[in-house]
Amino acid sequence: MALEHVAQGQTRFFTPGVAPDPRGILLGRYCLMTFATLEGAVSWFRLYSSEASLDELLANLSIVKCRTALGSREIVVQIPAVSSYAADRSARLARLVGGAIYTGTSKHFVKYRDDRSPFGYDAVDIGAMPAGNDFMVHGDEFAQGYIREGELGFARLLFRLSIRKLPGGDRLGPDDRGELYLAVARGLADGIIRYLWRNRVEAQAGLFTPGSSSAFDDQVRDRGYMLIHVHGLPERILALFLGTPGIDVFRAAGANAAVAVGYEHPIDLASCASVFSPETFHVFWPNDRVDVLPGPLTLSDISDLTRVDLELDRPKDPQQHTGGPAESIGVELKLAASMGPPRRVVATLIPVAHGSRLKRILFALPPVSLRGHRVAATDRGILVIGSENLDVIPLGQLMYELAPGLLVPLGMDVVPRVSPEVLARALGHSAGLVTVFTTEGHPFQVSEGSFATLERRSLAKLEVDRAESVDYAADVSAEAQVVNDAVGRFALWGFPDAPDRKLLPPGEK
Amino acid sequence: MPKAHVRDFLTAFVKPLVGGGELHVGAPIPLAEVERWEGELDNASVELVAVDDARHAVLSTLVCRPPAFVLEGDELCLAAGLHNALFLVHPRAELWSFSDKQRRKIIETALALVSQPLSRNRTRVMARHALLNNLFHLSRNDTTVSWWTGRARFQGQKPPPRLTAWKGMRRVREEVTVVDFDELLAVPDTAPVIATLLRRTPLTQLLDSHPGAPPLHWEDAVFLLRDSELARAIAYRLVPDTGHREQVVGPARLAAAFEQMLERAPDEADVRAVAAFLVHLNALFCLGELNLREAGAKSPLISTVLSAEAAGQRPRGLATLFALPGALSLVDPRLSIPPGIESLPALAKRWMVHRQQTAELLSDAVVDALAQRLKRHLKPESRRDPSEVIALPNS
Fold it and tell me: If DSSP codes are grouped into helix, strand and coil, which group holds residue B139?
């Protein structure tokens, strides 16, 4: 048995039912994968579903148990060859899990392309198929006939697989917690609904009874439970529910299935959504339990399900109330002696009359003490604000800072004791303003712009002349460029002869 | 047509010649007109002052206090002669209607105008240099206009707008080429005029030159070396702070002129003055290398310009320039070392390095040949060294 490498552009092949695809790769209508065991096939489904959608293959997918002429059994998975890209993926994954892949249309399947022959293989000597064989595969060194023994439905395989516990799978991220289902035992349903409603969790709930086809089920006993579809379940509530008996949490896997949180189905259920009928909703429980609920799920909002207390014997008639202007509850702000510990002095308000004393102090103070202080002269006094403790100036009313820019006399407090933010809003105080409370009169405000540094303010204005720099560098002379003027046709008209004077030797001048 | 006034000539030609700008070259100027202009100079004080100010600005980079001078008749004649020489390359002078006789007339008139007496007066020499300082840098923009059906060349003239209109549609292309001294004043017609003119301004020839310019005649210029301020200015201008090859171009030119001088019969004092000046230039090369990282390192300048690989690219006179101290040490050792060099030990060390390196790179034959030529001019029994102190006999 020999296989030939397919050449680029080759259009005629010995193998029946194959043709080159647009990339020139030999491809039949189907791909056939052979696995020694069912686990190999399941591993292939598992890998494929995690990479691509199985839905596009499900229409013509078949899983067949086959027997060879020698009696060995193999699992053959036949998928439609939708494109050479899908076939490439299938081939890669089949080789990964120890299977082999072939392509063909009806009875003869030839080895799919690999690295050695990028355009595929063609079986050159296809003879008559031995009697009793259903189909044949042609490999590098062999041709193998298969006899079908039985077919295994994909849906059946899917529901026979047990969901597996994921380590750390019950710690869900915010995105995973977006759509969750709670299966709540009937007795807990009221409490859970009330709990969710109190915690403002958006949810819909419905009561379901799993379908059963067994005649041995206890029809009298109600096996139903409350299914609650919750959105954005907080992490703490999820942890609470996961630890509460009678409450099971499920994560949506596609539109018509849900898997218990902390578990995972071997095959990605979202990639084979077409297996699930739209009239059903499959709930995959731990311990191989699969509940089939009637779908699509019709749920009601839990805000309408909360308990209603009705007292019909004491009717309450609505009372009439008349509106009116709100009464003022404002309290006048006052300064009161403070009982608290002394605060840090940050400013002082010196009466204008004491300006001369301030001047004398400024002369006496070292420059280090003056640094960082700012001063503003206002009609209410000279306000000096320091960056550090300002007790070096023993003049005027010392002040501390209640809030940034809000100055209150030392030893006084503002009553009523509202928060500084409220006080600032009431006073119209904002950034860029300094509001000063005084013991006499109303508080006043000074803009930050009117403050000057004390060092600068302590000097009188000096007259300084600005000297202009003079450039004594010689100018770079421009380039001398000859420009020929128009001289007219008779420029040389009457040009005299040169005088006949001896040129050499010229005398000294 | 009214005759042009001298103030037009001063404005349109003389002032741009001194300070840069557009030099307007018109019809050639007859001698009689220049003589008339000399009389009109008194009536053109504004233009005259502008020209003299520009000349002062030129000299201000050369000497500390430029002397006072006023444009006089001989300088007017030099400028008019240059104007007539430039007319010889005017497009009008290249037409068929411009006969050889007319051309000769203009050349002779230009020669007559520039044949002013030579001058050794410091002020006059500086004034003439200030007037002609741009002589080697005159240039002209020639525009070639080509369009879909033809082309035209405009030498120093603007193409008329009718030829440059509708550029896209007529596929007009303008190419501007810059024409310099070579094609303006070194052509056969103008060369004799310029050679005569340059002898009248030796300072310009010492300070500046052009490959196409006539060579320097040291006998006309040596008197400038006896003026210490001008000699220093010339030396500093000749050794610019640029690349090595550019640094030696000016000194090599003067050394080449010195070679020519030795072929003639110059005065011995002149030969000594020029030789001492060239030795001084050698000392300036040493001075420029005082800040080398290694004091005893070989000179990069000499390695570059005297290397055997660059022998074919050496400018004329370069070997003479560097061989001169060695040759003078054989003929008259007093001239071979610049006076006072020992007072600066670092400079003296560099001087020794330069001399050793020069001796390695130039063969002894070059030095000996130069020494033989110098011996013909420098008498072995020379006059007394003025620096020697004569001990008066005790009476």
Answer: strand
**Is any Cβ of chain A less than 8 angstroms from the Cβ of B192?**
no
Interface test with A, best of B11, B35, B89, B140 (most A CBs within 10 A): B140
Q: Do B25 and A488 touch (CB under 8 A)?
A: no
Q: What is the pLDDT of residue B395?
A: 47
10 Å CB burial of residue A238 (0-12, 13-18, 19+) is buried
Residue A480 has its nearest CB partner, among B60, B117, B138, at B138
Cα dihedral sign for A84, A88, A94, A98?
Answer: positive
Chain A interface includes B307 (CB < 8 A)? no
* Angle (nearest 5°) at CA A137 between A131 and A142: 95
Structure tokens at A41: 């096939």
Residues in B touching A479 (Cβ below 8 Å): 20, 137, 139
B110 to each of A201, B114, B117, B264, how far by Cα in Å?
109, 6, 15, 29
Q: Which residues contact B99 (CB under 8 A, 6 or more apart)?
A: none
Instruction: Choose the closest CB to B91 out of A484, A497, A507.
Output: A484
Residue A80 tokens, joined: 């439609």
Interface of B with A in 355-394 (CB under 8 A): none
Q: What letter represents residue A304's amino acid?
A: D
pLDDT on residue A239: 87
B63-77: per-residue pLDDT in tens? 999 999 999 999 999
Q: What is the pLDDT of residues A424-447, one digit of tens each?
A: 888 888 888 888 888 877 888 888
B115 in contact with A at a CB cutoff of 8 Å?
yes
Contact B30 A499 (CB under 8 A): no
B11 — contact with chain A (CB < 8 Å)? no
Is the pTM higher than 0.90? The answer reads no
Within 13 Å and on the Cβ side, how many CA atoms surround A89? Answer: 18
List of chain B residues whose C-beta atoms are within 8 Å of the C-beta of residue A480:
16-17, 20-21, 23, 134, 137-139
What tens digit of pLDDT does each residue of B287-344 get? 988 888 887 888 999 988 888 777 778 888 999 999 999 999 999 888 899 988 889 8
Q: Determine the pLDDT at residue A267.
A: 87
Paired sense of beta strands A108-111 and A100-104, if any: antiparallel
Contacts by residues A169-177 (CB-CB < 8 Å, ≥ 24 positions apart): A169/A261, A169/A262, A169/A263, A169/A264, A170/A242, A170/A261, A170/A262, A172/A235, A172/A238, A172/A251, A172/A261, A174/A232, A176/A251, A177/A232, A177/A233, A177/A234, A177/A235, A177/A238
Within 8 A by CB and 6+ apart from A363, the residues are: none
CA dihedral for A84, A85, A86, A89, sign (positive or negative): positive
Q: What is residue A141's predicted lDDT score, i.e. its pLDDT?
A: 84
